[in-house]
Specification:
It is built from 14 helices and ten strands. It is of the alpha/beta class. It has a six-stranded mixed sheet with strand order 1-2-10-7-8-9, sandwiched between helices.
């Protein structure tokens, strides 16, 4: 069953002041380069550095008193992990994050620094879900599949509602895509408020499960995603999120890793914004003519800015 705008607005009202009402910033440089009127929704400036805090809070805040006491767990190797840890600490709820053993020590430590327990599992996708289920059985904590939780769509949808307040006359919105929860929530809000706005999703070529699913109109899997866009590596869309994608999304496109990295470098130079590769794929699609919206007002979502300093330095040093 599809989430509606009223549910999104209610979740938005519940968000705490720690969740930033992030700006929509006009980019003259990208506008000049593309012929479109380009604005950037800067969720890279969000608390913990990504949009995930919205859904993390919505999930945790809506647990029962008993569930809050016993704690909650998700599986994530990056932005959702830190967001869930941060919001758990804010709400006084114990949290555990299932992460593969290959997860970078930087990300594991960052999750722990925000207050969560990191539980490592074998380096394959099924191990994540098996470990999450085991935590639920053995400890009595609430194990949450973020691909199928309605509060993920509700929380992420708050971004779409904000965009429509900040740029009510826009023609299109461009959104990075992993499992589909982010674009599903945004598209629900945007299309309900103005069905004429075009919603375009972007995935990296090495992780294109939602792209393939969108074209085939059925869920497809990419078992071993391979991309520098490490925030966009879901091997398949969620059933719930895919419903929203098929209901509201107009187009899906792909960008290369090289194009994403170039967009990271471009955003540093042109906008003085630090954005991770997965967060920059919308800008990459515009700059490379993969999405053409000449004469149109477009908002591209910068979904996150969590990039390791040495990784960013390497990109910038490459010219």
């Amino acid at each position: 069953m599809l989430i509606n705008l009223e549910e999104i607005e209610q979740a938005r009202k519940e968000l705490p002041p720690e969740v930033v009402y992030t700006p929509v910033l006009r980019s003259g440089a990208i506008s000049d380069a593309t012929g479109a009127d380009v604005w950037l929704k800067a969720e890279n400036l969000q608390v913990t550095g990504s949009y995930k805090t919205r859904a993390a809070y919505t999930i945790l805040n809506r647990l029962s008193a008993d569930q809050k006491r016993k704690g909650a767990a998700i599986s994530s190797s990056g932005n959702f992990a830190t967001a869930f840890a941060y919001m758990g600490t804010l709400l006084g709820i114990p949290t555990a994050i299932v992460m593969m053993e290959k997860t970078s020590p930087y990300k594991v430590q960052r999750t722990m620094d925000y207050g969560a327990e990191a539980v490592l599992c074998e380096n394959h996708n099924q191990a994540r879900w098996d470990t999450l289920d085991r935590l639920g059985r053995e400890r009595g904590i609430t194990a949450i599949n973020t691909w199928e939780d309605e509060n993920v769509v509700r929380g992420h949808g708050s971004i779409g509602a904000e965009i429509m307040e900040q740029a009510p006359d826009l023609d299109a919105v461009i959104v990075p895509v992993s499992s589909g929860g982010l674009i599903g929530g945004i598209a629900t809000a945007v299309k309900t408020l103005n069905p004429a706005v075009k919603v375009i999703g972007v995935q990296p070529e090495g992780s294109q499960a939602v792209y393939r699913s969108f074209l085939k109109k059925e869920i497809c899997e990419v078992p071993e995603p391979d991309t520098v866009c490490d925030s966009l590596v879901a091997p398949r869309p969620g059933d719930l999120t895919f419903e929203h994608v098929m209901a509201y999304v107009d187009e899906m496109v792909l960008v290369s890793d090289e194009q994403a990295i170039d967009a990271v470098k471009y955003l540093i130079g042109a906008m003085k914004l630090v954005v991770e590769p997965g967060g920059a794929v919308g800008v990459a699609a515009l700059l490379n003519g993969i999405v053409t919206l000449e004469g149109k007002k477009v908002v591209a979502l910068l979904s996150g800015g969590n990039i390791m300093p040495e990784q960013l330095a390497g990109y910038l040093g490459a010219g």
